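Incident review: delayed structure delivery

Summary: a single-chain prediction request sat in the queue longer than the usual turnaround. Root cause was a stuck worker, restarted by the on-call engineer. No data loss occurred. The affected request and its eventual output are reproduced below so the record is complete for anyone auditing the incident later.

Affected input:
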Amino acid sequence: MVSNSEIIRKASEYVFTLFKENKSDCSVYHNYNHTIETVAACEEIGDESNLSKSEQEIVAVAAWFHDTGYTEDCENHEEKSVEIATRFLQQNNYPQEKIAQVASCIRATKVPQDPKNLLEEVICDADILHFGKKKFFQKSDLMRMELERRADRPFSDLEWLQKSVDFVTQHNFHTRYAQLDFNKQRTKNLIKLQELLREAQSDHEETLSDRKLKEEKFTGKLEKEKIPVRGIETMFRLTSGNHIDLSSIADHKANMMISSNSLILTLVVTLFGRDIISNTNSILIIPILILLIVCVTTIIFAILATRPKITEGIFTKEDIEQKRANLLFFGNFYNMRLEDYEWGVKEMMNDREYLYGNMIRDIYFLGKVLARKYRYLRICYNVFMYGLIVAVIAFAVAFLIR
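Output delivered after worker restart:
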């Protein structure tokens, strides 16, 4: 294994001492821990990329030294890392050809990455392998802390998320192994970054003074200056959707009862109508009448459950000014002129309290309609269930007497 190479052992000891003796408060991310992780990643990717033992050694040495330049110069750390590595390798009589390859690998990690061969691709992927891991956001926080200390100023969430999205988007994995095994998690991390960025942008826009002034009227009824606007709108959307789904279910059940009982009525009239008129099966008259009454009553209540109730469809300017008109329900405006309705809706859109009041009333009256539907539907099912039992018993008694 590569880890058994003498030069790698010496390099690891040298780099450990170098970082230990040159600790920097600015190097929160680019430190010895990151170096160890990069070396391990190089070994993993190198094995899967079928690098020879000699090539693995070159990549591993480059990985050990690729961030040592941070101990001297953060801005030009790649070239400093090359100088430190070259000096160390020459002191240990390392072949000049391999020293040049190590230097090329270190330079390849400079952002933006531009590897020219497989060895450089391996170390480049190893250096950013956390892009494709679940611990990406933990590493991102360390990088943010390091850059803030270096810039001597904090980054806003919006600024940092934009930098992170740009950086991850611009840097793809190069080796086949990294693409196959880590691109899926990298994509998930990028999607999560995009979601966080959109939320940060939305929050930033909501902090504008005009937006705050418009929301102050409504904040007295909720938590002042901390209205969860998206949460409220989601609540209204889900509640309205649930009410509409329940209404559709009730209508479907009522239609089912109308269809089935109409079929029963048709069959009874077809099979027994002539016998009842001719009085040939007088003993069946009572059970047949019971069944007919049950079916008709069931159909009546099923129709009542689905029968719509239409209002006048007119509202006045006074209703708008007093915030009484519910403009979200068609029954309140279907007889209005388009110009009047447009004016009313614009007035509502300019008043958040009025808008939410309309949504609350709309949900409330939807609930009232649902209650009526399900009350009639319950009566319909009860009549059908108990009536059918009585009819069956009546038929059984009639056949026994007969």
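Verification: The CA atoms of residues 287 and 392 lie 8 Å apart.
Action items: add queue-age alerting; document worker restart procedure.
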